[in-house]
């Protein structure tokens, strides 16, 4: 997801790390409202991105494993649910950026459009990984000398 994002940003003439910078600036602005000063920028954005993302992925994986109806579902069903989960759960986080960074309407539309596509990719990958992890393990065939035991 991030490699595609950085490639697209570079292709349209924007800095490849600008999304991480916006995330970091959003986090810094959010914490400043709470009276906690911190630096924004790329470092804070990367840290936030790679802390929040895996936590959300683990929550989805645990939910699928615990929910018998989901566990019994097809690979496509799990992928579709993962995409919905990622898109819905990410909205409150994504909505903070336009408000806290005071984006224009055009910037907000671009932010949500790009975020939708990137989180769609993440949801697909998450669904494929979780559905693959739910497949039963393949047992190797026993050697002939052990077959009669």
Keywords:
6 helices, 0% strand, 149 residues, mainly alpha, elongated, single chain
Notes on the protein architecture:
The protein has helices at residues 2-11, 18-33, 41-66, 68-71, 75-100, 105-133. It has one domain. Helix 3 runs antiparallel to helix 5 and helix 5 packs antiparallel against helix 6 (105-133). The mean pLDDT is 87. It is 74% helix and 0% strand. The protein has 149 residues and is mostly helical. The termini are far apart.
Write the layout of secondary structure elements.
Blueprint: H1 2-11, H2 18-33, H3 41-66, H4 68-71, H5 75-100, H6 105-133
Summarize the structure.
This protein has 149 residues and is mostly helical.
The level of helicity is over 70%
* Biggest pleated-sheet summary: none
* Oligomerization status of the protein chains: single chain
SSE order: HHHHHH
Counting DSSP E segments of at least 2 residues, the number of strands comes to 0
Specify the structural class: mainly alpha
Per DSSP, the total helix count is: 6
Task: Using the CA coordinates, give the radius of gyration.
Answer: 20 Å
Shape: elongated
């Amino acid at each position: 997801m991030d490699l595609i994002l950085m490639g697209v940003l570079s292709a349209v003439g924007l800095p490849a790390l600008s999304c991480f910078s916006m995330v970091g600036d959003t986090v810094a602005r959010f914490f400043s409202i709470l009276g906690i000063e911190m630096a924004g920028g790329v470092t804070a954005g990367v840290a936030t991105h790679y802390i929040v993302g895996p936590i959300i992925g683990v929550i989805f994986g645990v939910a699928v494993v615990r929910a018998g109806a989901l566990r019994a579902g097809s690979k496509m069903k799990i992928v579709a649910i993962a995409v919905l989960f990622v898109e819905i759960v990410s909205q409150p986080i994504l909505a903070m950026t336009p408000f806290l960074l005071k984006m224009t309407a055009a910037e907000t539309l671009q932010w949500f459009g790009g975020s939708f596509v990137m989180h769609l990719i993440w949801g697909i990958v998450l669904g494929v990984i979780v559905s693959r992890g739910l497949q039963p393990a393949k047992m190797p065939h026993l050697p002939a000398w052990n077959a009669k035991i």
